[in-house]
Write a structure and sequence with these properties.
This protein is α/β, with parallel strands linked by helices and 451 residues long. 31% of the residues lie in helices and 22% in strands.
């Protein structure tokens, strides 16, 4: 059996792991690379094996860095089944359509304004190519064994993180491989705690926050502080939000703060059409999260939910104080860039960063103190206050990742650390070795292991 790391190794994006066993090829996740240009260029490259030779895709969840390359895979000849949970199917369809729409719009804008070196600029994939993925989905139920082939079966188990997210245990050739996917937090605002594996010969564990411990500060209190300070200065708060789950978590906390009279009576705006659609997925999948249907409806009633871009521009042109939650979470695209163009250069405004920011993304550059940010070929000065609330991350921290291994009944033969930049992954490796004595390695992009 061979395992090849073709994405999500040494980086938190582009997650793809290929398993080859007795003539069967399985791809676990099929994500888009984001951030650094050298990584983004990989999105245009074919896989190391022909897409038509891959039999199955197992999808842990619907974030772009785990599902966003599926249209390219299908376009290059993949015709197999894509196994995932019902919420993941619904989220992935939204995410892929949104991704295709943004790419098409950016290509059209680049061609119109001539700021791309490519002539013409082309989208990575179109809306039609994104939609071609949907007939291949096969919905699975959590904690039930599914037969992949006569010799291979798999079990999906709740990983927290976002709605529908799962770890996947694959049994083949008498061995058990466990793919963590992205592990959520035990104390998440909306998601239930992740299930821990009890057995696994080989584990592939994410390491996004492998060298960090989330602060003990209550994120709700931090939100209250930053909003009140900004509104008092007659400014606007912009929160770049991941449309799936983080947006809903922030909405929930803002709703609680408003009910408790702790934040002012200004407009609260959700400007992410996909985020609004995800709310419907929450209502249709109540067993996957902690909110009741009544909570969902009441929470939504507090927000002005924007769908059309013309509405976005009217909001931007209104100088009155407000709180805006807009995608995308790493500011790599989407509506939040339009707010940045108008609000980043004003000192009384605040940008609140609430999720992980990959290397090379605008969000990471803002956190690193950039004086200016490039958007659609133009540079914009950064005078707004840039703050971060780490307690709103959807990922387990180092302590949570180490704890995820605590129910294993016997030592695994090896743990491979994926989905992390090199330093966090290596620090997690050391911590796992110290705590459990388990053999642990940091996965390297493009490498292959035989087991």
């Amino acid at each position: 059996m061979k395992i090849k790391f073709i994405g999500g190794a040494g980086t938190v994006t582009g997650s793809k792991t290929l398993i080859e066993s007795n003539g069967t090829r399985i791809l676990v996740d099929c994500g888009l690379f984001q951030g650094l240009k050298a990584l983004r260029k990989l999105n245009w490259e074919p896989l190391p094996v022909p897409a038509s030779t891959i039999d199955i895709v197992l999808l842990t969840h619907g974030h772009l860095d785990h599902c966003g390359w599926l249209p390219r895979l299908v376009d290059q000849g993949f015709k197999g089944k894509i196994y995932c949970t019902a919420p993941t199917k619904a989220v992935t369809e939204l995410v892929l359509l949104d991704s295709a729409k943004i790419q098409q719009e950016e290509a059209e804008r680049a061609n119109r304004e001539h700021y791309s070196k490519h002539n013409p600029a082309e989208p990575l994939y179109t809306l039609q190519q994104a939609a071609s993925v949907f007939p291949l989905f096969k919905v699975v139920h959590p904690n039930k064994s599914i037969v992949i082939t006569n010799e291979i079966d798999a079990v999906f188990s709740n990983a927290g993180h976002i709605i529908g997210a799962c770890s996947i245990s694959v049994k083949l050739e008498g061995k058990t491989l466990v793919f963590s996917g992205d592990i959520g937090r035990d104390d998440d605002v909306l998601m239930y705690a992740p299930q821990k594996p009890v057995q696994g010969d080989y584990l592939l564990l994410e390491s996004t926050y492998g060298n960090r411990i989330h602060p003990a500060i209550d994120p709700k209190t931090e939100l209250e502080k930053y909003i009140n300070e900004t509104i008092k200065d007659n400014g606007t708060v912009i929160i770049p939000g991941f449309a799936v789950e983080r947006a809903q978590s922030i909405m929930y906390l803002l709703w609680e703060l408003k009910k408790e009279g702790r934040i002012p009576n200004v407009p609260y705006i959700l400007d992410t059409p996909m985020g609004a659609s995800v709310l419907n997925i929450f209502l249709e999948n109540l067993k996957w999260h902690k909110l009741s249907a009544d909570d969902c409806h009441q929470m939504c009633g507090m927000f002005r939910i924007i769908s059309e871009f013309e509405q976005t521009m009217r909001i931007i042109e209104d100088p009155s104080p407000k709180v805006v939650l807009a995608a995308s979470g790493m500011a790599t695209g989407g509506r939040v860039l339009s707010y940045f163009e108008h609000y980043l250069g004003i000192g009384k405004n605040t940008v609140i960063i609430v999720g992980y920011q990959a290397e090379g993304t605008r969000g990471r550059k803002l956190l690193d103190g950039a004086d200016e940010i490039k958007i659609y070929g133009n540079y914009y000065s950064v005078k707004a206050k840039i703050v971060q609330i780490e307690g709103l991350s959807a990922h387990a921290d180092q302590k949570g990742l180490v704890n995820w291994l605590s129910d294993l009944r016997s030592p695994p033969k090896c743990i491979y650390l994926v989905h992390g930049e090199n330093q966090p992954a290596d620090e997690l490796r050391i911590k796992i070795k110290e705590q459990y004595g388990y053999k642990c390695r940091v996965a390297l992009m493009g490498t292959e292991v035989e087991i």
